[in-house]
Design brief:
The chain is an alpha+beta fold and about 270 residues long. It has six helices and eight strands; from the N terminus they run ααααααββββββββ. The chain is rod-shaped and about 115 Å long.
């Protein structure tokens, strides 16, 4: 049994309040040795019980003290206890508390303990449910973000002005593949690089457009494996070809031809 199942079970509260069975007490003591978080939880329960008892304490009226002193033969004006002497065979009157008072006090204590157990148990369950809800909310937000990204990607792919250009692998990387979506009406360029090999941590892919026979920087590509994502690059009003090379992080002013992974000419 794990500590995350033990803490909200309610057994620790019974242990602190002395209501657990011998077998349960033994089990809790084993958990205390095994799980530091269980020991900490017990300390917090003990502190909560003490705080509750102090908060519920009621200052008795002064008249109560007077009546008690009169019952035992003391004067409320002084704190001196008179010497009591008894003759042989003298009968001493003993004042006893009626049994129904004892039962009333016992019932009050049981109700108080029961209230503490219920409140503390439901508090723990509430805290656990709140944490689970937050985790679910975070996951939902993540899925919404992914869905929004995919929707944006599909808008690019299905745009009537988008001209798809498939960049195939070079002899350096024959299995590499990428795709360009070139918007003929605006000159905007989008790249889908999800089929490129994952680069080393100190390397990054860079897009190039061949314009008037010269390579022009098209921007750095960020890869996120497992998520279909099309990235917007620099815009080109015209281009003869597109290529992607592997450069150092941050890019290079000129392409490293030995590290060219994919290339494609534009056919208009």
């Amino acid at each position: 049994m794990e500590s995350k199942e033990i803490i909200p079970s309610g057994l620790l509260e019974l242990y602190v309040l002395g209501l657990a069975s011998n077998e349960e007490n033994t089990q809790v003591q084993q958990w205390i040795k095994q799980f530091p978080e269980v020991e900490k939880e017990i300390e917090e329960i003990q502190s909560a019980v003490e705080s509750y008892a102090l908060a519920q304490a009621v200052q008795p009226d002064q008249s109560v003290k007077k009546k008690i002193l009169e019952q035992v033969g003391l004067s409320s004006n002084n704190n001196v206890v008179p010497e009591l002497t008894f003759q042989k065979n003298e009968k001493v009157k003993v004042h006893t508390i009626p049994s129904y008072y004892k039962w009333a006090v016992a019932a009050s204590i049981v109700l108080l303990i029961g209230s503490l157990i219920i409140n503390y148990t439901y508090y723990n369950k509430y805290q656990s449910a709140t944490a689970d809800l937050q985790t679910a909310q975070n996951e939902l937000n993540k899925q919404k973000e992914i869905a929004a990204g995919m929707n944006k990607d599909m808008q690019v792919v299905t745009d009537k002005n988008a001209m798809p250009v498939v960049l195939k692998g070079t002899p350096h990387a024959p299995d590499a593949l990428a795709k360009i979506f070139w918007m003929q009406n605006t000159g905007e360029v989008y790249v889908d690089a999800t089929n490129l090999p994952q680069p080393a941590v100190d390397k990054q892919y860079q897009l190039w457009a061949i314009v008037d026979g010269k390579p022009v920087d098209g921007g750095m590509i960020s890869l996120q494996k497992g998520v279909y994502k099309i990235q917007k690059m620099k815009s080109f009003g015209k281009a003869e070809a597109f290529a992607i090379t592997l450069e150092k992080q941050g890019g290079s002013p000129t392409p490293t031809m030995e590290e060219m992974y994919v290339i494609a000419k534009i056919k208009i």
